[in-house]
Design brief:
The chain has 430 residues and is mainly α. It is 63% helix and 1% strand.
């Protein structure tokens, strides 16, 4: 009964919180932790938060700390986080043959960031079918690579885990020793398979569905899909060029990192060795993030696109338009609010973490906090050095980043609106 009185934003926030706490308990079970390994609850909570928020930041190594059962729990938390608690709940209801009421449809609409509730149940089914397809195909192709280095059963487990983590844009791995994919930096097959999974997981289920229905016909796609795809490709290309320019790594490494940076969190090169210029490029890409309705985080590609269009419109005194469509009138203000809140979270989080651990460098902390907010999961290697206070701060930032700036605001929004209007005043801007 209490849920009926809560707003959709608060229900979504509560759902993620419950998933995180449940996951932290499951990961603490004796059957989840390897014999001889002592796991502090703060690290279990941190790992669960990182998994549900599909981030990938780790304070303990997944392979060295957790048993196969614990790794299975971790994979399920990533899956729940990527699809969203609401979508998972709706899927269970549908599988049981029950109907989703109007409140449930409203929750799904808000959780998936779609404008209409029309055809929502069919859309949920499409999401699950799409996820199963990509993750199974990704696992089969990854197995070709991992089977060369691991026994068949272990290679199968690694392949399934990697495919789930990649499609859900979560940078977790179970290869051991915090190494991510550095051992496969020159493996073309695994790099490309991972990039494809990251790309489709990051463009959003709405876009994937539309591409399938419209048979990849560019001119038939909606404005949203064209914006998402064009911005994603632009960021991939520009990111590759900028990273290659600043760092002494291969073109394949720069290409992979440009894909992974915007919320996937896998790395084929140790980022602790990157220059400040290279880290700045990665920070910008992480902050922009993936696309709406996807498994990724950040302010989103469409938000960045609308910001650019708004600035261009103000500079040229021309209307905001793209792909023969006019940009919605309130889109720029919404994009500006999301960006401002996101920047405020990152800057405030950076300040507090520097106060808590002044021995850490500014660029490393700035990178870590941006990674937590954007749910990217990349790190320069300081995650394991964080104290309890810094870990709790990082948990809060990951949680805020997964919910999204606007959801965070509406969770705390109590006012029903103003009844009094005031005369317009004068203020100088710029």
């Amino acid at each position: 009964m209490l849920l009926k009185k809560l707003s959709t934003s608060r229900i979504i926030a509560l759902g993620f919180a419950i998933a995180i706490l449940t996951g932290s308990i499951l990961l603490m079970l004796p059957c989840s932790v390897r014999p001889g390994v002592h796991l502090e609850y703060i690290d279990s909570l941190y790992t669960s938060t990182s998994a549900v928020c599909v981030t990938g930041l780790v304070s303990v190594d997944a392979k060295d700390t957790f048993t196969p059962l614990g790794q299975f729990f971790l994979a399920m938390l990533i899956q729940i986080g990527g699809l969203g608690v609401t979508a998972i709940g709706a899927g269970i209801i549908i599988a049981m043959g029950k109907k989703v009421n109007m409140k449930g449809r409203s929750l799904i609409r808000d959780a998936l960031n779609v404008d209409s509730g029309k055809g929502m149940i069919i859309f949920i089914r499409d999401i699950f079918m799409t996820t199963v397809f990509f993750e199974l195909v990704g696992a089969m192709l990854s197995y070709i690579v991992f089977s060369k280095d691991y026994p068949p059963v272990e290679a199968l487990g690694i392949s399934l885990f990697h495919s789930i983590a990649a499609f859900n844009n979560s940078g977790f791995d179970i290869l051991g020793n915090y190494r991510s994919l550095t051992g496969y930096y020159d493996n073309f097959t695994l790099n490309i398979i991972t990039c494809v999974l990251i790309f489709f997981g990051g463009i959003g289920f709405l876009v994937i569905r539309e591409l399938r229905i419209k048979h990849f016909h560019w001119k038939k796609l909606s404005m949203h899909s064209r914006v998402v795809i064009s911005m994603s490709l632009f960021l991939i290309v520009s990111g590759t060029l900028l990273i290659k320019t600043t760092e002494n790594i291969s073109w394949l490494g720069a290409f992979f990192l440009s894909f992974s940076t915007r919320t996937a969190g896998f790395s084929t090169y140790p980022l602790g060795n990157f220059s400040s210029a290279g880290l700045l490029v990665v920070i910008i890409l992480m902050f922009i993030g993936a696309s709406p309705g996807s498994t990724g985080g950040g302010i989103k590609t469409s938000t960045f696109f609308v910001l650019l269009q708004g600035i261009k419109s103000a500079a040229t005194n021309k209307s905001e338009k793209a792909f023969h469509y006019a940009v919605p009138k309130n889109a720029f203000s919404k994009a500006a609010i999301i960006t401002a809140i996101g920047a405020a979270i990152v800057l405030t989080g950076t300040y507090i973490m520097l106060v808590l651990q002044p021995e850490l460098s500014f660029i490393d902390v700035f990178f870590e906090v941006t990674s937590a907010f954007s749910t990217s999961g990349l790190s320069t290697g300081i995650t394991q050095q964080l104290g309890m206070g810094a870990k709790l701060l990082s948990i809060i930032i990951m949680y805020a980043g997964r919910l999204g700036p606007l959801t965070i605001v509406t969770v705390w929004y109590f006012s029903k609106g103003e009844r009094v209007s005031y005369p317009e005043g004068n203020i100088s801007v710029g």
